[in-house]
Amino acid sequence: MAREKDTQFAVIGLGAFGFSLAKTLAEKGAFVMAIDHNIERIEAIKRYVAEAICFDATDPEQLSAHGVTNVDVVVIAIGEVFEPVVLIAMELLNAGVGRIIARASNDTQETILKKIGIRQVIHPEKQVGERMAIALLHSSVRDVFELTEDLAIFELDAPRMMYNHTLQELHMRSRYNVNLITIKRPLIPEIEDDSNENFEVLGVLTADTRIVKGDKLVLVGSEKSINKMLSTTNR
Fold this sequence. Notes:
Elements: E1 8-12, H1 16-27, E2 31-36, H2 39-45, E3 51-54, H3 60-65, E4 73-76, H4 83-95, E5 99-103, H5 107-115, E6 120-122, H6 124-137, E7 141-146, E8 152-157, H7 167-170, H8 172-176, E9 179-186, E10 199-201, E11 216-221, H9 223-233
Parallel strand pairs: 1-2, 1-4, 2-3, 4-5, 5-6
Antiparallel strand pairs: 7-8, 8-11, 9-10, 9-11
């Protein structure tokens, strides 16, 4: 199986979301082709990515000529208008592109994209809003990564009631229907620093792993299950 960094990506649409996505993928070592009809956006991104090309991606001949239909993953990140997203998606489907990810601004647009055959649809603004809402409602939740509509990965501060208890004693899966993936432990607990540099990832956990003050738990489960765990342990 090819490593992710060997996968070739094309990002169409270099607004704030598309630009950030293309830049981050490239910085992680991936081959990225960045595409936009705005030459200023192309000039801004070209020092980060393998290829930056200015053309109208709704033109099927241009898509083929520039090799967009030959990459492994195409992300249609256009957010300003929806019609080009549909036109480009249809051309990519007809060309047999292996994986197409399209951006939608609302549920109606998502329904349309799925009707024409796009399996993976993203809502950047909606997803960021949902993550922020959860974090605001629960001050101990640091981050949320949605996997499906009902399942997500949560990073949260270890509840005080769990301090100095082993995983075997806590029975998190049977009590709250959540699975603990790993623990991020501060290298210098006395310093209040939430940056990744101040944490080590414990890796594979055992029944004897003990939770201590300052730990951040990385859990997978539903929001309902996380709410149940937090309401029980933060009394």
